Amino acid sequence: MKSLFCASLLLLASNAAFAAGQMRITEWMYNGSGGEFVEFTNVGDAAVDLTGWSFDDNSQIPGVQPLSGFGIVQPGQSVILTEDPAATFAADWSLSGVVIVGDLTANLGANDQINLFDAGNVLVDRLTYGTNNVPGSIVTLGISGWTTLEHLGDDTVLSWKFSVAGDEQNSVLSSNGDLGNPGSYAPWSDAVARFGSGCAGSGGFTPKLALLGIPANGQTVTFSIEQGLGGSVAFVFFGTGPAAIPLASPCTLNVTPVLPLSLTLPLSGVGPGAGEFAVSTTLASMTPGITVTMQTFVIDPQGPAGYTASAGVSVLFQ
Hints:
Elements: H1 2-12, E1 23-29, E2 37-42, E3 48-49, E4 54-56, E5 65-66, E6 72-73, E7 78-82, H2 86-92, E8 100-101, E9 112-117, E10 123-129, E11 145-146, E12 161-162, E13 172-173, E14 179-180, E15 192-195, E16 208-212, E17 220-230, E18 233-239, E19 241-246, E20 252-256, E21 262-266, E22 271-282, E23 291-299, E24 307-309, E25 312-316
């Protein structure tokens, strides 16, 4: 469910991505307690047939690791290449419906390269990493790395960041204790970030608020809420700066000053953690350089004072 939801959001934000099907490296971990992996995502708006495609490390030889097993990759869909058997990797990360090519033998090292070739043996994407290759590179030992929408397709590992539990990619721990989010990619922009903390309610779920895509005039962005109480109502408040004002413990108000504009939104789904809302819009008449903060509150009888709240989201309009 989560991977399909993220895929639909990525498709809605395709005006901020590529005008045709385009495969990109979106996450990787070269070593961990479980199997190493590379995630590839179709960030365009047309399907890509990976028949005849291949992967190699820093030897840069097309055809070393065939990727035909991925088949046709739909817009927004992420697929996984791993050294583990596919079923083992899926079980470790609790993945369902994610296409996985396992038993990779061209294993990655601490200082290496990820090369993606198409069926004509043309290089489609490359990521060079490791502190010996690029001083300051992240070292994905047990923690995966990912990058924002603006840097996809650039061989610039310094723009990549470590996964953090509950981050913009909703990263989690695997059963082996590795940290990451293989199987789905959320197209966050450099200009959008979460801050502060939320508070949990029914089933222990904390609502998640996101703005996906590049926040600039003429670009399509997707506003979404996840992990709310299905069938309930969400309120969204806006401000011009961050805050941490105590409310019913442990909730905080994360926006200041609270602007007169607010939204009241019905959440789809049924029950704890199933509540979702998503809408896409093309931005117009936004003033570049203006920062807006926002936070959602969801009516939830199991939450503090009868509600739960998300972390804050800060948006710098480009």
